[in-house]
Design a protein that fits this description.
The chain has about 100 residues and is mostly beta strands. Helix content is about 10%, strand content about 45%. It has 1 helix and 6 strands, in the order βαβββββ. A 4-stranded antiparallel beta sheet has the order 3-4-5-6, with helices on one face. A two-stranded parallel ribbon has the order 1-2.
Length: about 100
């Protein structure tokens, strides 16, 4: 299923977070395919750009980070998007 040649520019692929393969992620990115996955907590990366977007009340709507993941000879640049999940009568949670 995760053969980058099966996907076209501007297609979106949603992946399970247990699947981490930077080479495949890089191939998808090179083809212009957008992939979305939930990160594992123990991944290491370097932050290149960090931008927080706020609503008119000054509360965080979402945070966008441009990062680089490094493994062997692969330097994969990606974005990490964090948003606030607000549910009624529950404490806000960062996702």
């Amino acid at each position: 299923m995760l053969a980058p040649s099966h996907y076209n520019h501007n297609e979106i692929v949603a992946l399970d977070r247990a699947y981490i393969n930077y080479a495949k992620f890089e191939e998808l990115t090179d083809r212009g395919v957008v992939y979305v996955t939930k990160m594992k907590k123990n991944l290491s990366y370097e932050i290149l750009v960090d931008c927080m977007h706020q609503n008119p009340e000054g509360l965080m709507e979402y945070r966008e980070q441009v990062v680089v993941f490094r493994k062997d000879d692969i330097n994969h640049i990606a974005r990490i998007i964090t948003y606030v999940d607000i549910k009624k009568s529950k404490k806000p949670k960062l996702i």
